Amino acid sequence: MNKYKKLSLVMAAMAITASSALATPDDGTMQDSFVLPSNAQATMTPVATNRYGLDFTKAAESTINSVVSIKSFATPRQSQFYGGDFVDPFEFFFGPGFGGGQQRKQKQQQQQKKSEPQATGSGSGVIISEDGYIVTNNHVIDGAEKLEVTLNDNRKFNARVIGTDPNTDIALLKISATKLSPITFGNSDNVKVGEWVLAVGNPFGLNSTVTAGIVSAKARGVNKGNNVGIESFIQHDAAVNPGNSGGALVNIDGELIGINTMIYSNTGNYAGHSFAIPSAVVNKIVTDIKQYGSVQRAVLGVQFTELDADKAKDENITATTEGIYVNKVNDLSAAKEAGIKEGDVIVGLNGATVKNGGQMLEEMSKLRPGDKATIKYIRDNKVKTTTVTFKNDQGTTNITKSSDFTSLGCAFLSLTAEEKEELGVSNGVKVTGLKDGKFKAAGINNGFVITDINNIRVSNQDEVEDIYNAIMRDKESDKVMFITGIKTNGKKTYIAVDLADPE
User: Fold this and answer.
1) Percent of the chain at pLDDT above 90?
2) In angstroms, rounded to a whole number, what is the distance separating the alpha carbons of residues 431 and 413?
3) How many CA atoms within 13 Å lie on the side-chain side of 458?
4) b/e burial code for range 7-26 (CB count within 10 A of at least 16 → b)
5) The domain spanning residue 321 has which CATH number?
6) Per-residue pLDDT tens digits for 28-77
7) Is 396 helix (H, G, I), strand (E, B) or coil?
8) Can you give the pTM of this predicted structure?
9) How far is CA 270 from CA 202, 209, 414, 477, in A?
């Protein structure tokens, strides 16, 4: 996963027994899950009818055609004992048919067939526009070389990835189709604990499965791993299993209120606790990806812990026992400019109540750099308010747009054997087709030969692009290419290319 900077917020992670991502590997096994001992016995329980007399058919019928199955494909890595140029000594001396050459050829042919992309897992997705945009979980499509989307009417399409956000586990896909059945977005802010919900997806490869339950909690924080911070989920008890990842959580009116992404389980299968990303967060993430090419994150610039009764007593706080206790305010941050101080307790943001870190993060996830919001806080046991203008992770209020590889403004040709010999190098690429872009702005000309970028040797355009993408994905490093190269006059030189978008 990409290394996104935390929102400069520090909070204790919830301790959980197990949490499982819900993509299903193609071989039917469960990933990232804990399994019961082999002597554990499975039981079957009859499905209960809805004793409250509610009718879920409207919600099911209005959403089932909006949920798709997503299958991912990747090429398995192969290792061969013999290289392609190996000559069997028995065949060399005695002719074809002696030794093991024929068997090796057959094995290599079989390996070539196996090296084609194979199905590696499956999940679900939700159609959000008539022209083929689909939202799913990032972990459903992560690492895939090919994505196959199957609609509820069994039509199949290849999908391309428009953008991803590993930090919220959201991915946006696109298929070449029209007149689809997009789901209707609901407002997850209005969801109430105890409200009936339906989960629609493809558990265990069983397409178009609908299960019912209620909302168990809101703004639930769950630590998904070392690379992902605390998130804010809708917790519910509609049955969700591997394969449901990326599927829809809808209300009784069939409106999307969340994207199912995780379960809490000791077995890897449903155990009564499921988690969905709120639709308000999904909508904002998808909008950012479509409009800016990357997710825009608002940064407040404080370090905090959740307030509880013990902390309130220690700090002599009598006005509340809930909220966000500010431990530190970062210099030049949005919080400092708004007048927030250490010891303040944030209890409201953007008109919403803030009782814990999950609620704080959910509200922050809806905002962008440059947005203004009202913060309600307690200081000296008195309620106060202030207006804050949020910044980005670089300390400015600018929207950060994602540049693509074409912004370099050139192409790269691999060096021929003759060119390598003439230059005295073993690798390199030559700049060609130069036009206005970041390379031209850095003073690079056509014919310039690049041997290393950020101390990594390059031999073709794909390697240059891989390095570029790695730089742009890394939120903790400067967006700079440090290039070692050779000018057209044969002189070795070093050039720094600034990849950051202009302020």
Assistant:
1) 54
2) 7
3) 27
4) bbbebeeeeeeebbbbbbee
5) 2.30.42.10
6) 433 333 333 344 444 443 434 455 568 899 999 999 999 999 999 987 75
7) coil
8) 0.67
9) 14, 14, 52, 40
| Euclidean distance between CA atoms 350 and 254, whole angstroms | 28
Pair 180, 281 in one domain? yes
When pLDDT is averaged across residues 384-388 and rounded to a whole number, the result is 96
- Measured between alpha carbons, how far is 297 from 387 in angstroms, rounded to an integer? 18
Q: Provide the pairing of β-strand 449-453 with 456-457.
A: antiparallel
Task: Dump the DSSP string for 142-181.
Answer: TT-SEEEEE-TTS-EEEEEEEEEETTTTEEEEEES--S--
For residue 388, give the H/E element and its range. strand 382-389
Q: Are residues 324 and 362 in the same domain?
A: yes
**Paired tokens of 97:** 């048919």
**Could you report the per-residue pLDDT of 84-127, keeping only the tens digit for each?**
444 455 554 555 555 555 565 565 555 555 557 788 889 999 99
Longest distance between any two alpha carbons in the chain, whole Å: 96
pLDDT in tens, 418-450: 999 999 999 999 998 888 888 988 999 999 999
How would you class 201 by CB atoms within 10 Å of its CB: exposed for 0-12, middle for 13-18, buried for 19 or more?
buried
Q: Which two tokens stand for residue 385?
A: 């308010």
Contact 178, 131 (CB under 8 A): yes
Strands 345-349 and 480-486: unpaired
d(CA 125, CA 502): 36
Same domain, 176 and 315: no
Residue that terminates a domain, selected from 389, 415, 436: 389
How many whole angstroms separate alpha carbon 452 and alpha carbon 475?
A: 22
Query: What is the per-residue pLDDT across 353-367, written as a single tens digit (0 to 9) for each?
Result: 999 888 898 899 899
The residues annotated as belonging to the active site are 139, 169, 245
Q: Of 246, 269, 295, which residue is a domain's last?
A: 295
20, 57, 276, 383, 392 from 264: Cα distances, Å: 6, 28, 12, 37, 33
Between CA 431 and CA 410 the distance in angstroms is 7
pLDDT of 148 > 80? The answer is: yes
Distance separating alpha carbons of residues 296 and 172, to the nearest angstrom? 15
- Kind and range of the H or E run holding 417: helix 417-423
